[in-house]
Amino acid sequence: MNRRDFLSCHVPDKSRPAASLGPGYYSNGVFTTHENRKVRFYDDLIRGKISIINFMYASCDKYCPRSISCLTKLQDLLGDHLGRDMFMYSFSLKPEEDTPDKLAAYAKSNGARRGWLFLTGSEYDLTSIRFKLFRLDDPLMDFSVDVHASMVRMINDNNSRWSSWVLPDPPRLIREAVSWVEPTKPFAVRVRENAELQTRIESESAITAPQRAKFKRAHGWPEITAKYENPEGLRKLQSLLHARTA
Amino acid sequence: MSSTKEKKRKSTEPPNGPGWTRRTMLKASAAAGVVTMLTSRKSLALSLPPIPTQPPDCTPQPTNSPATTPFMQALPIPPVAIPTILIPFPTLQADTALGEAARANHQDWTQFFPLVQYSVSVQPTMHQFHPQIPPTYCWGYNGIYPGPTFLNVYGVPILVRFANNLPVNNIGFGDNNHTTHLHNGHSASESDGFAGDYWSPGLFKDHHYPNVYAGFNAVPPIGDPLEAQHTYWYHDHRHSFTAANNYRGINGMYLMYDDVDTGSEAPGQGAQALRLPGGYGVYDIPLNFTDKLFCSDGQMYATSPDTIPAGDKFCVNGAIQPYFNVYTRRYRFRFLNSGPARIWTFNLYDNNGNAQPMTVVTTDGNLLPSPVEIIPSSSQPTLQGLTVYVSQRYDVIIDFTNATAGTSWYLTNSAAQFVSNAQEPEPAPGVNIGNVVMAFNITGPPPQQDQSQVPSVLTTLPNIATPMANLFGTRLWNFNDFVAGAEGDPSNPTAKVFNVNGLTFDPNRPDALIQQGSAETWLIRNRFPGTGWTHPVHIHLEEGRVLDRRNINANPTTGALISINSEGVPPLEQGRRDVYPIVPGDEVLIFLQFRDWFGKYMIHCHNLGHEDNLMLTRWDVTTGPSSTVTSPTYSDGTPNTGNGEPNSGAQPNLTPAITLLSQLPASYETTKLNRPGFKGSKKGVKA
To answer: B34-40 long-range CB contacts below 8 Å, 24 or more apart?
Structure first.
């Protein structure tokens, strides 16, 4: 590593977003994409974007295929965002065998679209970011290759928001976890979504009051429709609160 | 026109940028202190402190928090929540038009109509943890940390309106979507703070806490008084961000009183009154324990925007190493471990370094049949220190009657915190200052004679003979760490990180349907081989009874059984509990009933980091029938094929009912506990 590389890895960059943790935190190592492009981790992959990151290797034939097919479906759920403000990065766990050509074939066979990069690089750089991004503060887990094969990490550099989910859970759940790092939606949108949710709750399987009453009758439990009056309890509560606030 | 718009936009958004110094932040926090709920949202936003950008001077991770001098500040006592009249008035159905978050209708609303109402705003604040550490940006109920304490009487239903006023320009760790769980309230599902039912800033949600005993359907009007619980806490439960939001400070305590535990020690209350040391904040003291790691500028450090570190500062009620002045008399302390992950083991030492006893009267808020004494010289290993797992509560009586005025006693933890760079002297012989969590300064005799007592019989446990004879079955919950490959094949990484029965959380997928009014025994296992994690498992809705415990010693690589060590029921689990710690290899059999309410509830690991990594499962109380198999699909219809482990995916999770672990068939003793193809119990619930 020459001096310039060293500095760009470790000196915070003034041009990064105000809330970003910056290249000093994320590191800025060089990786090679499946399109055989050289990219810097922070400068080219993380800065100003929402990144969706996982680890895999092309020859993994037991667990990874399900994870990757789940990410393939995730592409559809990301829609126009993919390649614009959201990017998917799959890093190699076996850089010695995952050459850019091999990754390119793998990307093609899995239907990767623009905005989904498969990356390889030096063992040191790969381990550094794996440790950083998938850190659970437990050495056993942090150094385990297995654990990282089953996790996907979402990062929004603009507001330093992170989330994660487990692979290969349904893509819909992963899309939802991506939304948690996105900026909070405008109030009007949140109110509208809340009203839609209320409609959905009411139309779904909520157990209604008449059903509850019927269930009680079936069990022979007394039916009570009157309000439970408890003036004594209210007085007790009053005295408890009074004792403390007097 | 456009300039007005511009102005308005600026004034409603909390400023956040380099122009905001710590001084302006402090000014803002002073203003936040006078904000009431009647203030409009606009001015509220103006007066709230801005979010500090992720600590600019705190990367990489600090070696330690700033040094602090011990015992510089008195123990803060959280203020009592004061009722109000809510406008708009609470309604049966969610008032979404006026800003209420979506929810199902309140259950038994007319019967337990809440005349007593509270308004709580979840909002940012500045909180000073120690005089030598600058104020810290926190989130808290009503802008304080810990949140206000609710005092309640059984049979007086209340309603709490939780307004989410967290910042919309959310930066760094913590999520501005919020939900509150009253742990472990016998609350209807829509008021239980289910982890997936979070609501966004600007909305509020009404939680209806009827404050009734479990079993009120069968024993009207308010249930069986033997089901009483007394010490609860309420906290953020937004899934995937629970650790961060609680680390930010979103939690508080909720106490319940009745004719037995009256909150008063005065004589003449009738023979049933226990007269434990009483008077909130006077002789009845909440102790909310948590650990934090601070940057040099006083901001809380997070390992990453998604990971909360182990702290090196021990905080009690939001103060680092405080002192508490006591008279020579009895006190009731309500110990709570509010997380995120630390397991505390407490002991008490006097000024001469001699151990002093602590008397436990409640476990998870439930009165024990008889008080249990904690002292290092105990012959029972579990009673040589008070071990408190995340979210467990213990009410402890400490008797200072024979203490010497002018001296101090010390509450210690088995692990030490960072105090200062200088070598601190031992406060008492053999007591390391780092291990001291707080000091009790003995001031002298009390102004009035101590009228409190600690009866040798505190309660009798509810009779469970009938439901025990009509169990639906035994439900299995395997709490798994990651396993290196199916069947121990490390070349085949199949495992999920933390999981329950091989599955991670889907808020829309119940993994057990349970008929209301039925009873089951649940077998909770920390499966081997694992990474050595302990899982404090919490079950919502009802308190359980520990029936049996044992530890399975197995080969960590092959899973081959070495030995089974029966542990029976330890003294502190002979009452009722809602958090069941399981160390690696442990399994615990508990008895549970599912009464009174319908809807979605959870079983989850209460290590906040583990639950954020989806070690959470939803189960539903329904009109029936109860299920015997884990959900066959995810909520979107994706087949639930699990991860190839013996008990994962759409596998049976019910066996014929057992009431002791020795009744488990020998074939269940290994990892193949839950063989595919098992048909479950045919025994139904009497309808």
So the answer is: B35/B121, B35/B123, B35/B143, B37/B84, B37/B119, B37/B121, B37/B163
From chain B, pick out residues whose CB is under 8 angstroms from the CB of A190.
Answer: 200-203
Q: What is the DSSP string of B5-26?
A: HHHHHHHHSPP-STT--HHHHH
Residues of B in contact with A166 (CB under 8 A): 496-497, 504, 613-614
Which residue from B minimizes the CA distance to A237?
B153
Average the pLDDT over each of B13-17, B103-107, B148-152 and give the range with the smallest value: B13-17
With beta carbons less than 8 A apart as the criterion, state whether A21 and B54 touch.
Answer: yes
Lowest mean pLDDT among A6-15, A232-241, B59-68, B387-396: A6-15
Q: Name the 3-class secondary structure at A33.
A: strand
pTM, whole model, 2 decimals?
Answer: 0.90
* Cα gap B657→B406, rounded to integer Å: 58
- Distance, in Å, from the CA atom of A188 to the CA atom of B572, rounded to the nearest integer, reads 51
Can you give the pLDDT at residue B682?
Answer: 23
Backbone angles phi, psi at B359, to 5 degrees: -105, 115
Which pLDDT score is estimated for B555?
67
The secondary structure of residue B383, as a DSSP letter, is: G
Q: Do the beta carbons of residue B281 and residue A244 sit within 8 Å?
A: yes
Q: How many CA atoms lie within 13 A of B208 on its CB side?
A: 23
The predicted model gives B619-634 an average pLDDT of 85
CA B328 to CA B348: how far, in whole Å?
15
**Sign of the C-alpha dihedral computed for residues B654, B655, B656 and B662 taken in this order:** negative
Tell me how far apart the alpha carbons of residues B320 and B70 are, in angstroms, rounded to a whole number.
8
Could you tell me the sign of the dihedral formed by the alpha carbons of B13, B18, B23, B29, in that order? positive
Residue A9: both structure tokens together: 């890895």
Q: Which residues pair with B686 in a beta bridge?
A: none
B200: Cβ–Cβ under 8 A, 6 or more apart, which residues? Answer: A184, A185, A190, A194, B101, B164, B176, B177
Burial tier of B563 (Cβ tally within 10 Å: 0-12, 13-18, 19+)? exposed
Strands A50-56 and A86-92: parallel
CB B534 within 8 A of CB B581: yes
A117: Cα within 13 Å, side-chain hemisphere: 25
CA pair distance A155, A135, nearest whole angstrom: 13
Q: What whole-number distance in Å separates Cα of residue B208 and Cα of residue A215?
A: 22
Lowest mean pLDDT among A163-177, B68-82, B325-339: A163-177
Which residues in chain A touch residue B99, judged by CB atoms under 8 angstroms apart? 191
Distance (Å, whole) CA B182 – CA B516: 21
Token pair for residue B123?
């909002």
Residue A145, chain B, CB below 8 Å: the answer is yes
Contact of B113 with B86, CB cutoff 8 Å? no
CB-nearest partner of B218 from A191, A209, A221: A221
Tell me how close the Cα of A114 comes to any Cα of chain B, in angstroms: 26
Helix (H) / strand (E) element for A139: namely helix A139-142
Contact (Cβ atoms closer than 8 angstroms) between residue A39 and residue A51 = no
Residue B625: is the preceding peptide bond cis (ω within 30°)? yes
Nearest to B157 by CA among B119, B116, B190: B116
Chain B contact for A132, CB < 8 A?
Answer: yes
> How many CB atoms are located within 10 Å of the residue A210 CB?
8
